[in-house]
Amino acid sequence: MTSLDASSKDASFPKRILTIDGGGLKGAMPAAFIAEMEAISGQRVVDNFDLVAGTSTGGIIALGLAAGLTGAEILDFYLTRGPRIFDQEPGEGVLAAVIGVIRRAARSVRRLGTAKYNSEILRQELGAVLGDRRIGDALTRIVIPAYDSANGGLYVFKTAHHERLAVDWRVPMVEAALATAAAPTYLPAHSFAGAAHLLDGGVWANNPMGVAALEGATVLGWDMSQARLLSLGCTSSINPARRVIGFRNVKWLIQTLFDGQDRFSHATAKLLLGHPHTNPHLIRISPQVPPGHYALDDARRMDELIRMGRSNARAAMPRINECFLLGGREPFIPCHPAAFEEK
Where do we find the motif DGA/G here (predicted)? Predict the structure, then answer.
């Protein structure tokens, strides 16, 4: 994989933003998309984007890219480590199938009183790929949403891409990943030195398009009419309204709330960048699938998601090459001086 040094080029690059949605193991789809982009182009994605924003599983992907991992390495994380994180390591034969059914039932019962999964396993697997890297080690700007349940406010991990962002660069990437992925009922709230009881950023920004566009327009002061944004979802579906909604429709209602947030985030990005009909540089990739076909903690259909990600990348490559993979970007220089002192 070619690593490009944008500082050695004379070209002036447009600002480019990559965003990745939350979705648990469905993150295999955007991971495969990115892996295919890099395989076809021979370029690292991180070398072509000035800002990468990701929520939950998308936050893990964003942190992986910023840490210098290739798309193929991140995809391997989902394939080889995802089943263990969600207690679904593969087995063969009738006995393995029966054990799988029993484990799923036990997890559903456990979920009534506590988190469905153990975050320590996720910590171990994240540590194996991210090591001891901190946010200050990121190769490009990153924005990782979480939710501060202890104080009832938003919590966003950021690189030191503005002079007032003087704290998060010290935070280990593993801690940020555990916080943004702490989905209620699936994983426990995450605490570390400096923050307590953080929840999954999907509580308010499962689709981080709007967050990233606002970061570019306000904190970074970019001319958003000249910016370009590639947004990768973890699949989408249409959930028609129901005439009567009761307790048995809670799952449908939660999905509808996520859909509403997704549409609002998309609309915010469109308002800041311009409508796709007038600005062809706003691209959203989130294949539509039947409702409930994929679950965020079901490893049994990851192969389907990976094929979907690769095929969508191949179809989109002409536009992506033209808009985003331009052979480099302007160098990212953190604003916080301590980031240089400790390197």
Answer: 200-202
